[in-house]
Design goal:
Blueprint (H helix, E strand, L loop, with lengths): L4 H8 L7 H10 L7 E6 L5 H9 L3 E7 L9 E5 L9 H4 L7 E4 L9 H22 L6 E7 L4 H11 L2 E5 L10 E7 L1
Parallel strand pairs: 1-2, 1-4, 2-3, 4-5
Antiparallel strand pairs: 5-7, 6-7
Helix pairs in contact: 5-6
Length: about 190
C-alpha cells in the first residue's frame, strides 16, 4: 500500500493516523496551551487525536468515546459507547461543563447516495455540536469538528454560530486536496 507523505510522517512519529497533523495545525491556529484541563474526543477510534493530545499536552485529562473499539492509550480514559448515550455515562456526565476542548473526527458510514450521506453527516455534526455545547466550559471552551463540503455546510455553520462566539472553516494542509473533508472550529 502506498503511503502519502502525511501517513508516512505519522507512521515515523508513531501516530495511529495522519489526522493528527490536521489537529496539530488547528490547535496551533487557536493557540491551545498546555495548562491543566480536560479534553473530550468524540468518535475517537483509532485514537490518533487522543494520542496526539496526551503526548503533546501532558497536563490534560483526555476522555475518549466511540462506538468502535480503540486500542488503549496510556493516560486516556476510553469509553466504548454510542455518543447518543453520552449523558448516561457517569464518568463523562460528572465532568459536563468542565471540558476546555472538545474534538471530533467522527463521520458516519457513507452509503454512496449523496442525499442520504449529506443528511447523515449533517445530523451527526448537529449531535456533535450539541454535545460540545453542553460539555464545554461556558467561557473559553474550544470545539474542533470534521465535516464535509456540501450544500448543508452553510446551515451547519450558522447553527454552530448559535453556541460559539467565533466559528471558522479550515482546510488543514494534511487534508487530501481531492477530499471533501473540512474542519469547523469554534470558541465560546
Amino acid at each position: 500500500m502506498h503511503l502519502d507523505s502525511w501517513a508516512k510522517k505519522a507512521k515515523d512519529h508513531g501516530y495511529r493516523s495522519r489526522a493528527v497533523f490536521k489537529l496539530e495545525e488547528i490547535l496551533r491556529k487557536i493557540k491551545f496551551d498546555n495548562t491543566n484541563g480536560k479534553v473530550l474526543d468524540i468518535g475517537s477510534s483509532p485514537g490518533g487525536w487522543s494520542q496526539y493530545i496526551i503526548r503533546n499536552y501532558p497536563k490534560k485529562e483526555v476522555y475518549a468515546i466511540d462506538v468502535l473499539d480503540m486500542e488503549s492509550i496510556e493516560g486516556v480514559c476510553f469509553i466504548k459507547e454510542d455518543i447518543h448515550n453520552i449523558d448516561e455515562i457517569e464518568t463523562l456526565y460528572k465532568n459536563k461543563g468542565s471540558f476546555e476542548l472538545v474534538i471530533s473526527d467522527i463521520a458516519p458510514n457513507l452509503t454512496g447516495i449523496s442525499a442520504v450521506d449529506i443528511e447523515n453527516v449533517y445530523e451527526l455534526n448537529m449531535l456533535t455540536i450539541s454535545i460540545a455545547n453542553r460539555y464545554l466550559q461556558k467561557s473559553y471552551g474550544c470545539f474542533i469538528m470534521k465535516t464535509f463540503q456540501n450544500n448543508m455546510l452553510k446551515i451547519l455553520r450558522e447553527n454552530m454560530a448559535i453556541y460559539f462566539d467565533m466559528v471558522q472553516t479550515y482546510k488543514p494542509a494534511a487534508s487530501k486536496k481531492q477530499s471533501g473533508e473540512i474542519y469547523l472550529y469554534g470558541v465560546k
